[in-house]
Design a protein that fits this description.
The chain is an alpha+beta fold and about 300 residues long. A five-stranded antiparallel beta sheet has the order 4-3-2-1-5, with no helix packed on it. It has a three-stranded antiparallel beta sheet with strand order 6-8-7.
């Protein structure tokens, strides 16, 4: 009987050998030398087989959810949270969701296979307490040595979750300013106006200015000679700005009517008139350039002299 040869609680492998051979010597030999190895292999195959199936299912669910979120197909409050602004670019949302999906899939894989590994080790009779204690010590040492990398990863994760910036935004990180070309959990890549590519670690960004989130503002300080008629100058600037808004090639980039704020500064050599226009994201610079051209032409036609800034 297998109970006499394979202990009081025979394993599945030992019982199978007895059922096949019906021989005490063969079963005893298997139990003494091979039972533990074969049983461990069976548990390993079963545990990791189940783990692979669970991981496949988890990855499929995560990919489907993040894919729907990237395409804006999430109903209810999640959709409103992701698409609260009509100016949110599809590429930006897609990259953010793909990055988050990659992180979630990695976490799911570690948890699932870690659970399978400890299940197999437990079934093999291994005392897991020293192993867990050693893993804690090693993890703490690795974490201490890689604290900068962990800091970068956490900063990048929160940046993505909070939607601080994305591909196509013009940002100022303090150390570099330019257009965001790519964003990962650890590194943000910028290209400045000179074409220089900057790689900025996310953990080193302590203050960031985003010039293109939701809307922008074209702000012009126009210096004119101090002896010019202020009302005439204001009217010319307002007329040039209104014509710009009415232009079919530019009105799609302008969100509100322009506003001439008035005299911003006054010196012996110039009085500075400020005008502002609310624009679509990343359009403020080209709108400002076009408005300067139109104002200059209006000043030339009216004989308005420009001032000199110190």
């Amino acid at each position: 009987m297998p109970d006499d040869v394979c202990d009081a609680k025979p394993s599945v492998a030992c019982r199978t050998v007895w059922n096949v051979s019906h021989n005490d010597e063969v079963t005893r030999f298997f139990h003494t030398w091979l039972d533990g190895i074969v049983t461990a292999l069976i548990w390993a195959v079963l545990a990791f087989g189940v783990a692979l199936a669970v991981r496949h299912f988890a990855h499929k669910v995560i990919t489907r959810i993040t894919g729907r979120m990237a395409n804006g197909a999430v109903p209810g409050r999640f959709r409103e949270r992701l698409e609260g602004s009509q100016l949110l670019a599809h590429e930006r949302r897609r990259q953010r969701m793909e990055t988050l999906g990659s992180v979630l899939r990695s976490i799911a894989s570690v948890v699932i296979f870690g659970t399978a590994l400890f299940t197999v080790l437990g079934e093999m009779g291994l005392n897991l307490t020293p192993v867990l204690a050693s893993a804690t010590v090693v993890g703490a040492a690795v974490g201490f040595g890689a604290q900068n990398t962990i800091k970068d990863l956490l900063a990048g994760l929160f940046m993505l979750l909070e939607d601080q910036y994305g591909v196509g935004d013009v940002v100022d990180t303090g150390t570099a300013k330019g257009t965001v070309e790519s964003v990962s959990l650890r590194i943000t890549r910028l290209r400045d106006v000179n074409g220089v590519v900057w790689y900025v670690r996310n953990g080193e960004i302590t203050r960031l200015g985003n010039e293109s989130q939701n809307w922008g503002r074209a702000l012009l300080d126009l210096p004119v000679a101090p002896d010019q008629d202020i009302d005439e100058v204001r009217d010319l600037i307002q007329k040039a700005a209104d014509e710009l808004v009415a232009d079919k090639d530019w009105k799609t980039f302008i969100l509100e009517d322009p506003s001439v704020w008035g005299v911003q500064a006054l010196t012996n050599d110039a009085m500075v008139i400020r005008v502002t226009i609310k624009t679509a994201p990343n359009r403020q610079a080209e709108v400002a350039r076009e408005l300067r051209v139109r104002v200059k032409k209006s000043f030339d036609e009216a004989g308005i002299a420009l001032g000199t800034l110190a």
